[in-house]
Amino acid sequence: MGVEAAFNDRLVDPARRGDPLVLSVDSRVQGALESELYSAMMDQKAKGATGVVLNANTGEVVAMASFPVFDPNKLGADADARRNNVVQARYELGSTFKPLAVAAAMDAGVVTSMGKLYDATAPLAVGGYHIKDDHPLGRWLNVPEILIHSSNIGTARIADEMGSGPMQKVYRSLEFDRRPSIELKERFPTLWPVDWGRITNMTVAYGHGIAVTPIHLASAYAALVNGGIWRPATLLKRNANEVPQGRRVFSAATSARMRQLLRLIVMYGTGKTADAPGYRIGGKTGTAEKPEGGRYSHNANITTFAAAFPMDNPQYVVVSMMDAPQGSSKYPGVRTAAYTSAPVVKQVVTRIGPMLGILPDQRRDVDISELMPLLSQDTGEE
Hints:
The chain is of the alpha+beta class. The protein has 14 helices and eleven strands. It has helices at 2-6, 8-12, 27-44, 79-82, 85-88, 98-107, 143-148, 152-162, 164-173, 198-204, 214-225, 252-268, 337-340, 342-355, and strands at 48-55, 61-67, 118-120, 124-126, 129-131, 139-141, 229-230, 247-248, 282-292, 295-309, 316-323. The chain is globular, with a radius of gyration of 20 Å.
C-alpha cells in the first residue's frame, strides 16, 4: 500500500536499478507534523487527526499524516488505522470553501468591490430552508467581513448572485468532481452534487453538500494563493524544470486579493489562534457536523484549518483537521475549528518554518491597508 505500491513497478524495474526514486517528503517536516497532530489529538480526545504540508508552487507533498496509525509489521490493524485520510476519506469541509467561492465570484465579475454589501440581517429563506450564521451579526456585511466573520448568509448571497455555472466551472477546475490527482493508488472519489439547483449552489459555497479529500483542499488553496495556478499533488521530488505548467483557475489579481483576505482572517477573524508571529500565516477555519448513520451528528464535528505562509510570498500550504475533537486543555469544551485545528497550524508552522528556510520576520507582511477601513470593530469566532 501507499508509496511502495504506487511506485513498485518502477522500483523493481531492472533497467532503473541504481536510479534513485526521490520523494518530496521531508522527514523533518513529517516528524513535526506527526508530533503536533498526535499531541493535539490526545489533548482534545479526538477520534483522529489529519494533516498535509504542500509546496504551494510545485504541488510537492512535503509531509502527510493520518491518525490513528498502525505498525506495518503487525497484521490485523483496524480499517480506521490503515486508511490514509488525506487521500482516502472525503469530508464536507465547511467554511474552508468560502474563500474559493468568493474568489470564483470575483473572477465572474459578481464581486466587483470589497465594499459591496450583502444582507445578513436575518436568516436567508430558500425553498423551505433557512440558511443561518453561527454567530449572527444582524447587519449588512461587506466582502472582507463575510470572510472574517465566516457568514454563511453572506457567502450564500454571493453564490446566488453568481449562479451555478461559474461555481461549477471553478470547482471542476479544482478537480472536486473526481479522485485526487496524486500517485497513490488508494484514492477516494468525491461526493459531487447530483442535482445542482439554487439551494445546492448556495450551500456548496460554504462547504456543505459536497465532500472532498484533504489533498483536494490543499491543492485548491495552493492555486488560491500562488497566483491562481492549479497543479496536481505529487510525492516525487521535482526539479525546477519538472514542475508542470498547471492550469489557471483564478486570475492573478484575484489570487493577490485572496492573500490579503486570508491574512485578515488570521489577524482579525476566526483564524486568530493560528497566528504565529513573523510567519504571516493566512487561512480559513471550517467546522462541519460529522455525518453519522445517514444524518448529521450534533455532538461530533470535523474541524479544519486550511492555511498558507508567508502570505506576502506564499511558499507552503498547511491543512490540519481534527475528527470529533472534545476541546483542548487550553480551550476546554470548545469544539470549533478556531480552537481545535487552527492552533495546530500555528504550532506546525513555528516548527517547520526554519526547516524550510523561512525565518520569522516581524517587519514584513501583506499590505492590507486598503482593506482596513472596511472592517468594523467586532471580530468573529467559529
